[in-house]
Amino acid sequence: MSDFEIVTRQDFSDVTYLLEIRHPLMAKAAKPGQFVIVMSHEHGERIPLTIADFDRDKGTITLVIQAVGKTTREMQQTCRVGTSLFAMVGPMGIPSHLGKAKKVICVGGGLGVAPVYPQARAYKQAGAYVIGVLGFRNQGLMFWEDKFRACCDELIVCTDDGSAGIKGLVTEGIRQAIVKHPDIDEVVAIGPPIMMKGCSDATRAHGIKTMVSLNPVMVDGTGMCGGCRVKIGETIKFACVDGPDFDGHQVDFDDLMKRLGRYKPTEKAALEVFNESCRIRNAAPAVDPVAPHTHEH
Q1: What's the CATH number for 95-209?
Q2: For labelling alongside 40, which of 65, 102, 153, 194 has CA 20 to 30 A away?
Q3: How does DSSP classify residue 44?
Q4: Is the model's pTM score more than 0.85?
Q5: Degrees (nearest 5) of the Cα angle 214, 208, 259?
Q6: pLDDT tens digit sequence for 3-53
Q7: What is the spatial distance between Cα 87 and Cα 201, in angstroms, rounded to a whole number?
């Protein structure tokens, strides 16, 4: 039996998919807010993925992945139940500090909905009143609504087009929650940098502590490469060892987004090469009756 066997695969949309991987020791050690670094095959890229769920009884780690770059798209094609990842290191990063908050808003935007789930569940288990605010582009991209309803006292769903819940960004959900609950102790927000920046701006005037999970480019996950450095107030931190959770009111989001943008040309070139190789492979005539070879913060 492989150490990193995929035991469950679920597709939420044409770009978003879930992998549940058997690793009893990692499942036992995992805490909300942590991440893993995975390699899908021996010559694959090392990519950081936030732990979306863990089940200590089943001995599994759950990852929710969006097929946006070469590696995540390749994994979307190759990672099936019964196959295995080549490597998975973790849990990494400092676990989220729950503190003694009595009333919390847990905000997830897009793919960020997945990693904010363990935090919402942990706050609920700690006795807090949990308000979930989930944002999606449209109803077709929604997932895990049932899981959040099970651990949230209130759930506000926001969609860009109004096809589900309220029409608008997650900041509108935060605004409504604060109006109804002026005694919010803390907000946890996970999603694209622009969304986390908006959440931090929305809570700043109210003086509500706001924690965000940063997703800069990581290579080694040990703080040695320096690729994941982020500006927090007047200091430089490394997201892989000092985070990934930071005070949203202190994060220099403009610097983070600028750094992420630097890698876009390289990522685009790698994706074009991958797409071309897939096109050539699919166009080639079949040699034997084997099933077609299905192939990525």
Answers
A1: 3.40.50.80
A2: 194
A3: P
A4: no
A5: 20
A6: 799 999 999 888 889 999 999 999 999 998 888 989 888 888 888 888 889
A7: 38
